[in-house]
Amino acid sequence: MNLKLDAVGIFVTDMEKMVSFYHDILGMRTDWDGKAPNAELESNGFHLTLYRREDFEKETGQKYTYPEGINGTMELGYEVENYAAVDREYQRIIRAGGTPVMPPTTSDRWGERTCIAADPDGNLVEIGALTQG
């Protein structure tokens, strides 16, 4: 078997708010028209698909449970060029409405500088860099 991972999907409560977060704040590209039942976003070959929870439940004929608050199930990781960019991006994301989770911190174990914020639905977003300068 040779499966190719193509995208990650997130089932969202407010499509407009989530598309805005990933497009306007995190800079992912999309051609979502505001009407389609799902939004495809792309960044450097990575695809993120957003689906309205209620639409997905109707489509599959099932009800699902969703985490409340900050969701520690998974995270989306973004890489930036250096430590200073981690600090800048964290401040920018928080000012734009992201929820602070972990301020920029440098790991003693492997030297990565990383920070974590949460999107409007509480999904974790990590920004990291392995280079100081």
What does this entry look like structurally?
The protein is an alpha/beta fold and 133 residues long. The protein has two domains: 53 residues, 2,3-Dihydroxybiphenyl 1,2-Dioxygenase, domain 1; 59 residues, Roll (2,3-Dihydroxybiphenyl 1,2-Dioxygenase, domain 1). The protein is 24% helix and 38% strand. It contains three helices and eight strands. Strands 1-4-3-2 form a four-stranded mixed β-sheet. It has a four-stranded mixed β-sheet with strand order 5-8-7-6. Strand 3 and strand 4 form a beta hairpin. The longest helix has 13 residues. The termini are far apart. The model has no long low-confidence stretch (mean pLDDT 95).
Using the CA coordinates, give the radius of gyration: 16 Å
Poorly predicted parts = none
Largest sheet: 4 strands, mixed
The strand order across the widest sheet is: 1-4-3-2
- The coarse overall form would be globular
Assign the CATH class of the largest domain: Alpha Beta
Structural class: alpha/beta
Number of helices: 3
Mean pLDDT: 95
Could you give the distance between the termini? 42 Å
Counted up, domains total: 2
Please give the share of residues in helix.
10-25%
Strand percentage lies at 35-45%
CATH superfamily of the largest domain: 2,3-Dihydroxybiphenyl 1,2-Dioxygenase, domain 1
Annotated CATH topology of the largest domain: 2,3-Dihydroxybiphenyl 1,2-Dioxygenase, domain 1
The helix/strand order is EHEEEHEHEEE
Number of strands: 8
CATH architecture of the largest domain: Roll
